[in-house]
Specification:
Radius of gyration: 16 Å
CATH class: Mainly Beta
Structural class: mainly beta
Number of helices: 1
Order of helices and strands: HEEEEEEEE
Oligomer: single chain
Number of domains: 1
Distance between the termini: 30 Å
CATH architecture: Beta Barrel
Helix content: 10-25%
Strand content: over 45%
Number of strands: 8
Strand order of the largest sheet: 1-2-3-4-5-6-7-8
């Protein structure tokens, strides 16, 4: 399982920049890459996450759907590699400063540490914020688990950029 996750991450990180640089026509939709980083605070946990989303922006330029991977580490929740589907809506993409909302749902591979076993858990975030040109600031709620027994709910703040 660990090899599959690492291979998937490698393929996405290798192919994404090539596809972004090969785009010519934005009127037919476009391939988009989003990177976001930030802290999270919740019930019995505090930590930091880095998120990478590779997706397709629809021709209306307001909606994007993509596949994402992340790395997160925190107290209690330990280290994890979420793999998820992400939906993002940009309210007015023609303006340089506009509100956004996003939802991510998927699974979380829990990396074993001393005295724990690896497990598959749940991953979900719902957030809103603002996008200024290529940069974004968002905050929202998260629901994560370590396996199917330890659940964590809280707030997260993410800063990022879109290619």
């Amino acid at each position: 399982m660990k090899k599959l996750v690492l291979l998937s991450l490698f393929v996405v990180l290798t192919i994404s920049p090539i596809l972004v640089s090969a785009q010519n026509d934005n009127n037919k939709g476009r391939f988009s890459v989003i990177n976001e980083y930030g802290p999270f605070f919740g019930k019995n946990t505090i930590g930091f996450a880095g998120t990478f989303i590779s997706g397709y922006t629809l021709p209306n330029l307001q909606d994007m759907i993509g596949l994402g991977v992340a790395y997160e580490a925190g107290t209690g929740i330990e280290q994890g590699l979420p793999i998820f589907i992400n939906y993002r809506h940009i309210f007015n993409p023609t303006k340089p400063f506009t509100p956004i909302v996003n939802v991510a749902v998927g699974t979380r591979y829990c990396i074993p540490s001393y005295g724990t076993e690896s497990a598959m858990g749940y991953y979900m975030t719902v957030g809103s914020g603002f996008q200024a040109n290529l940069f974004s600031l968002s905050g929202g709620l998260f629901f994560k688990s370590y396996g199917t027994k330890d659940f964590y709910i809280g707030l997260e703040i993410k800063f990022g950029y879109k290619l």
